[in-house]
Design goal:
Blueprint lengths: L1 E7 L6 H9 L6 E8 L5 H5 L8 E6 L4 H10 L5 E4 L5 E2 L3 H12 L3 E9 L5 E5 L7 H4 L9 E4 H6 L11 H15 L4 E12 L10 H14 L1 H5 L2 H17 L3 H14 L3 H14 L2
Parallel strand pairs: 1-2, 1-4, 2-3, 6-9
Antiparallel strand pairs: 4-8, 5-9, 6-7, 6-8
Helix pairs in contact: 8-10, 10-11, 11-12
């Protein structure tokens, strides 16, 4: 069995698309655990008709954030493999079938697939596929969002699950612990070079569109994983640049400049220098 865990908060109008995409899977041995993070809309009402399918569970709890909400879903799951599909996204019909085919073929601890990026008009804007890298800073792109990776539940629990304190970048931060754990223990990571998930970039509230949460999340992650970043200058530079951008967007001018300088020093490329000049100029307008 595969456990699909969906955290949700005030997205009643989007949930039917997500739920139907799981119901329509050609592979049928799954459970869908919807964990409601204290919604104040009519999510409970919207989900009731779907609960006739005994494979679907609905858990309502107090608001505590997406990371803890996903962890609650895992705690209530039964599948050998788990995955996380956000309530505003959807899966293509062959998603789980392709995953199980790879499980039966090579028994990996982690399976990654690609995704379509869909804009708010329903147009396909980009297709992201797994990137083959032996260096960890490249492999972190595997876990860019939920649904594009499925992992053994035992391993997820062994590394402590999601960090409940993290406000954004939760999948990325998980990868900093998950990928070394698998590789260092002689495990296997399998790539499916197929787009099996649809990520909808809508105009509603999203963590990725909240610069305050992104600033706090990237700053927290950089501090938490100092040892990880110490010998990975490219990914450290990217994180420092992200902190700089979100510091600028939240009015933290001094921190913005400081982190853009750090980003350039970590990876002194013309692109990083240009970004330092541009944001430095903007900060003093």
């Amino acid at each position: 069995m595969i456990s699909v865990i969906t955290p949700t908060y005030n997205r009643a109008h989007l949930l039917p698309r997500l739920v139907n995409s799981v119901i329509n899977q050609t592979f049928k041995d799954w459970e869908l655990i919807i964990v409601d993070d204290g919604s104040t809309d009519n999510t409970a009402e919207f989900i009731q008709p779907f609960l006739k399918d005994t494979r679907i569970k609905y858990i309502k709890k107090d608001n505590s954030g997406a990371a803890h909400t996903r962890n609650v879903g895992v705690d209530n799951s039964k599948g050998e493999y788990i995955t996380f599909l956000d309530s505003d996204d959807e899966a293509k019909p062959e998603w789980l079938k392709e995953i199980i085919k790879e499980v039966n073929k090579s028994n990996p601890q982690l399976i990654c697939c690609g995704c379509d990026l869909i804009d708010n008009h329903g147009n396909l804007t980009k297709i992201n596929l797994p990137i083959s890298h032996t260096e960890l800073f490249g492999m972190q792109d595997y876990l860019m969002t939920g649904g594009v990776y499925i992992v053994k539940r035992e391993i997820f629990n062994d590394i402590g699950g999601f960090d409940n304190e993290l406000t954004s970048g939760q999948h990325y931060e998980l990868s900093f612990r998950l990928l070394p754990y698998i590789l260092n223990s002689g495990g296997k990571i399998a790539n499916l070079y197929k787009s099996l998930i649809k990520i909808h970039i809508h105009l509603g509230e999203r963590i990725r569109g909240n610069p305050e949460m992104k600033f706090k999340g990237t700053t927290y992650c950089l501090e938490k994983h100092q040892d990880f970043f110490s010998n990975k200058p490219k990914i450290r530079s990217n994180y420092e640049g992200a902190i700089g951008r979100n510091a600028y967007l939240t009015g933290r001018k001094k921190e913005s400049i400081r982190f853009f300088i750090k980003s350039f020093k970590s990876n002194p490329t013309p692109k990083k220098f240009g970004r330092l000049i541009i944001y430095g100029f903007k900060n003093y307008l």
